[in-house]
Amino acid sequence: MRVALVVVGLLLSASARADTPPSLEDALANASQSRKPLVIEFFADWCKPCSYFDREVLPRADVAAALRNVEFVRYDIDASPGSEIADKLNVSGVPTFMVLDASGRVMTRRSGLSPTNPHRWFIDLLAHAGRATHSTEELEAAVTAQPNDVSAHLRLAQHYRAIGRIKDASEQFGWIVEHASAHRSMAAEAAAERDAMDDAEARLAAAVASAEKFVEAFPDSRLSSFRIVALAISGRVPRNRVNELVKAHLDAVALAQWPNALRAAILANAIGLARASVDARLQGAPNDPAIHLARAELLMFIGERPAAIREVDASCRPTGHELWCYLLRHAIDTQRESSPQIVRLHEFAKGFLDALERPEPRITDFGIETIGEVDEQFGNAVAAALRRAQVECEYASVVGGPTQIAIELRTAGRPMRVNVRSRDGADLDGCVRRVIGAVSLPPAPPAIDGHVHASLMFPSWRKAGTPAGLRHSGFMPQALMRLGDVENVSVRFNFMADGGGERSLRWMLGGTIEAGGGNTGGDPAYVARLMTGLGSFLGSPNTSVTLVAGIGISDLGTEAPRAMEIPSELRIRTKLGGAKLHGWVEGATIFFEDSRRPDDGHGPFGLDEWGLGLGVSFAVPATRRVFVGGVYESRAAGSSVMMLVGVPIGSFY
């Protein structure tokens, strides 16, 4: 599986980062007022190439002069408002540079930093920004009003080139060369740009022809996938010809490379061919998880999200596709319209075409998706560790949340050592570091091992259960068995929720519904309780206590017939590593059924029935948590032991 390249970004000076950047709306308004193009830079403070950019490029006088011609705004993707704007503009990695027009439309997007003459690369980007954001109508009107103004023709020619109107740009450059005898410098500049444009056009035309020939000759090659996408987005190959190549590629490629071929078909807008290929592959291997996961990507892209979710849920078990599943789950959790793999294939193909126009290498570092590209086995191991941390530390994926985490993997020819950095406090940071640090990763691939520092930036997380302000909420279906003087087998559903916030005491609401068989003649048994009370942390976020009481009704068969009750529960929870321990005391005062009240009056603490419970919840390899526990119960009819097994949902249990 080939997945995305995430590059890492620009580190700005401490003084520049100290100021909070404007909102995107304010930045656009400032650019409009100053009549300058808006250039945005997205960065993160954990990136190594950024240090070079900050130290060697930004302080230069020629760079400072070029910056005066644009409205330049820098956004940290790990801080507000940068994280929100990065999500809005679909920024998946840093550095990302964007040029926006007055309406907020992205005119230019570039990633990375040239290792050769990076200051010249950046100055060229700033110059390109001015050409791309001017209004075509304005520039054409200026030429019409002053047909002999060479500078007006040059601005229009450069604008045409920036927006891809190559033929019109060539005509304007030619006019300047022919008529600008009195402006030798402008004529030379026009001739140089025309030659560069012609060279780029020749490279593009040759590359398109070569790519078409390659796909036709090697439809079974994995290298044909991105070439098909490049052919489709180049606009130089007829649609019916692209469809012919797509069909041949889908039919010929082996299953291991077929998912990427399917993505190529999707990006080439050959949805019908993609559907037919999925159906054909499923006929041959109906239970292959790779085919179902690829089908999920197709379903996401065409808007059939419920079906995509079902495919992912059914297929994402330990099958050697951990990284694929991790990326798909995040895309689903964060309401993305397509998978990261499809997005990156498009960007890779577009980058292939852009590199022909401006053939420059980029300084890049490794992200989680890149590792999957370099070494699938290692990528799966890292993704499995991330997923395990997400489950054990009880975090859900979100877009632009406050918990974007960078993992630094330091290598020295040995399994990688983990250093987690986050903006969400020591609790999350310590939990994630502990879980991931305890995973035994395979040796780093040589391509990654050559880097002193490899950073993985993975999705924003938040505590499970926070959307409605319920910080320690949960729901748990259970199966239970009572043995002793009261015996039965039942199914029970427990729930508990709190009102959130950082107050020392919080309001709690909980309850229990139980249904099963009684202990005499198969009589039905049931319990229904609704309770409310208070909850609080005990000195740390890892230990808490809840005390609740309420009203209920229960019937456990002939030994404990139906009665009204006032139930109560005192529960202490604490986290030990990846496990969560529960200890509780429960009880009830009984009404309207004397047989359930002790002969010698009320029991301990005025309770007619009481119990002591102990349980533990822990993660299992299938990325779910399991709760097991036992309760000693005392009633007027005698004592019993209740054993239970449950599946916790949320963060309480």
Sum this structure up briefly.
The protein is of the alpha+beta class and 653 residues long. It has 22 helices and 19 strands.
Strand order of the largest sheet: 9-10-11-12-13-14-15-16-17-18
Oligomer: single chain
Fraction of residues in helix? 40-55%
- End-to-end span in angstroms? 37 Å
> How many domains is the backbone divided into?
4
CATH fold naming of the largest domain: Glutaredoxin
Q: What portion of residues belong to β-strands?
A: 25-35%
CATH level 1 name of the largest domain: Alpha Beta
**CATH A-level architecture of the largest domain:** 3-Layer(aba) Sandwich
- How would a crystallographer describe the biggest sheet? 10 strands, antiparallel, barrel
Fold and architecture overview:
The protein has 22 helices and 19 strands. The chain is of the alpha+beta class and 653 residues long. It folds into four domains: 14-204, Glutaredoxin (3-Layer(aba) Sandwich); 218-349, Serine Threonine Protein Phosphatase 5, Tetratricopeptide repeat; 366-463, Fusion Protein Consisting Of Minor Coat Protein, Glycine Rich Linker, Tola, And A His Tag, Chain: A, Domain 2 (2-Layer Sandwich); 474-650, Lipocalin (Beta Barrel), CATH 2.40.128. Helix 13 (258-267) packs antiparallel against helix 14 (271-284). Residues 1-18, 359-365, 450-455 and 465-471 have low confidence and may be disordered.
Looking at this protein, list some descriptive labels.
4-stranded mixed sheet, 4 domains, Fusion Protein Consisting Of Minor Coat Protein, Glycine Rich Linker, Tola, And A His Tag, Chain: A, Domain 2, alpha+beta, 41% helix, 22 helices, 653 residues, Serine Threonine Protein Phosphatase 5, Tetratricopeptide repeat, 19 strands, Glutaredoxin, disordered N terminus
